[in-house]
Amino acid sequence: MNVQPIASHFIDGQYVEDTAGIPLPVIYPATGETIATLHCATPAIVDRALAAAARAQVAWAAMTGTERGRILRRAADIMRDRNHDLSVLETMDTGKPYQETSVADATSGADALEYFGGLAGSLTGEHIPLPGGDWAYTIREPLGVCVGIGAWNYPTQIACWKTAPALACGNAMVFKPSETTPLCALKVAEILTEAGAPPGLINVVQGAGEVGAQLVTDARVAKVSLTGSVPTGKKVYAAAAEGMKHVTMELGGKSPLIVFDDADLDDAVGGAILGNFYSSGQVCSNGTRVFVQRGILEAFLQRLTERLQTAVIGDPMDPETNFGPMVSEAQLRIALDYIAKGVDEGARLVTGGMRIDKPGAWITPAVFADVTDDMAIAREEIFGPVMCVLDFDTEDEALTRANATEFGLAAGVFTCDLARAHRVAAGFQAGTCYINSYNDAPVEMPFGGSKLSGVGRENSKAAIEHYSQLKSVYVRMGRVEAPF
Ligand SMILES: NC(=O)c1ccc[n+]([C@@H]2O[C@H](COP(=O)([O-])OP(=O)(O)OC[C@H]3O[C@@H](n4cnc5c(N)ncnc54)[C@H](O)[C@@H]3O)[C@@H](O)[C@H]2O)c1
Ligand SMILES: CCCCC=O
């Protein structure tokens, strides 16, 4: 498959090139080969995209929600029809196995387009009765031009999770994908345009942090939604605050997964595998601190090790493969450094954690046991396939230690005691919690973090609040009584 796009950027309804921008090679993580070369946006390209968005937004906001929603739902249908090609592209961009991308990426993007397309026609303000026959009403208005900035782990999904609610509310979007995975968002823009989105409504510009920073500080931008790491989030939030812009921050985590001794062992092991090794461990909400109650610790480790031996590590395009390479050499290096640090700190490497000797960013899934709360591997986000298993005795102890982190993205609990499950979920300091499951992200459910892991929520009706604002109108029905 030729993945070289027609041009680097998508602006005003068409592909646009500016070879004056810094070259941006796209590396296939499974082989290390360069599969496409794009160019980062120059200031002129950024300006063109923002100008197109500002112009398109006015007419788009004047359409009815039902009309806007119809276009989003048409785009969802096109995405589903092209799922195979979009999944292959996602695999080329990220290295994630086709077995995953064919069910989790374009499909999740299509769900967002369909869901917010369905909501668009019902977005309204409210009527508020007041004393003396007076009343007020609110008008739900779009914010204007929104900027979306993506991480590299879910390039199609992230573009859709931000663009769908933004457009449903009557906003325009300028999206900057991660410089590591620049291909997929271009397809999202192309498909929305084919579905009827007017030129300028959705624009994609390429580049790294400098391009992102230029977008965030532009006076034409009303809202910034970032998916990325906490350090980047702090910079982007601060820059957006200068212009008092709305923000959504979907950031990193070091989420806990608590396994009690009454849990179904295979379900708990399955949850830990999903929460650590899906997408080769490169999922923001991963439950990388697995607290296992002491009574089942050895059984848990044994079953986990057995099941990891059945992982199919190989060509990501092979439908049998269920564990691919990491996204880049740089990300692999970070994971390997943490693994070395874990060994130095005294944790026990139970299995995996070895670089696979072939071209590309390959590593075997790693499990550490005897991990203590103070170790760097238990405190810092690794964003790779490295599971830390910690043991505990009591519920109170597990919850206290689970919450003893500056992050608060997700958390999970495995137990057959329903009362305990809900008690623990209520006690978690995290935005997205799981009971006897892990990492589900249906579009109907709010997704996002607390503490340093973020601000705002994606998906669900909650996202509407983050892409619209209310105007209040007070209506006096009688005479105005003034003091003089
Ligand atoms: N909470 C979520 O929903 C979620 C989802 C996926 C990934 N993540 C997080 O993303 C991180 C991994 O992704 P990454 O390595 O691409 O993150 P990153 O923070 O390095 O980059 C994220 C994006 O921000 C851009 N950027 C960098 N500096 C910027 C600046 N000063 N101004 C504007 N934009 C700037 C980058 O170019 C990139 O597009 C992990 O921490 C992971 O947990 C969070
Ligand atoms: C479970 C959805 C994850 C998105 C973040 O990486």
What value does the average pLDDT take? 98
By DSSP (H or I, 4+ residues per run), the number of helices equals: 16
SS content category: alpha/beta
Termini gap: 78 Å
Query: Which regions are unreliable across 5 or more consecutive residues at pLDDT < 50?
Result: none
What small molecules accompany the polymer chains? Answer: nicotinamide-adenine-dinucleotide, pentanal
Dominant shape: globular
Strand coverage percent = 15-25%
Largest sheet: 7 strands, mixed
Helix content: 25-40%
Number of strands: 20
Strand order of the largest sheet: 14-15-16-13-12-17-18
Compute the gyration radius: what is it? 24 Å
Structure description:
It is a single chain. With 484 residues, this protein is of the alpha/beta class. The chain contains 16 helices and 20 strands. The chain has helices at residues 43-62, 65-81, 83-94, 98-104, 106-120, 155-168, 184-194, 209-217, 230-242, 265-277, 297-308, 329-345, 376-379, 395-403, 418-427, 462-466, and strands spanning 9-11, 14-16, 23-28, 33-39, 127-129, 135-142, 145-149, 172-176, 202-204, 221-227, 246-250, 256-259, 289-293, 348-351, 366-369, 386-392, 410-414, 432-435, 454-455, 468-475. The strands form five sheets. It has a seven-stranded mixed sheet, sandwiched between helices. Strands 9-8-7-10-11-19 form a six-stranded mixed sheet, with helices on both faces. The chain has a three-stranded antiparallel sheet with strand order 5-6-20. β10 (221-227), α9 (230-242) and β11 (246-250) form a beta-alpha-beta unit. α2 (65-81) packs antiparallel against α5 (106-120). The model has no long low-confidence stretch (mean pLDDT 98). Bound molecules: nicotinamide-adenine-dinucleotide and pentanal (PTL). Nicotinamide-adenine-dinucleotide binds next to α8 and α9. The active site is at 250. GO terms for molecular function: betaine-aldehyde dehydrogenase (NAD+) activity. It comes from Lacimonas salitolerans.
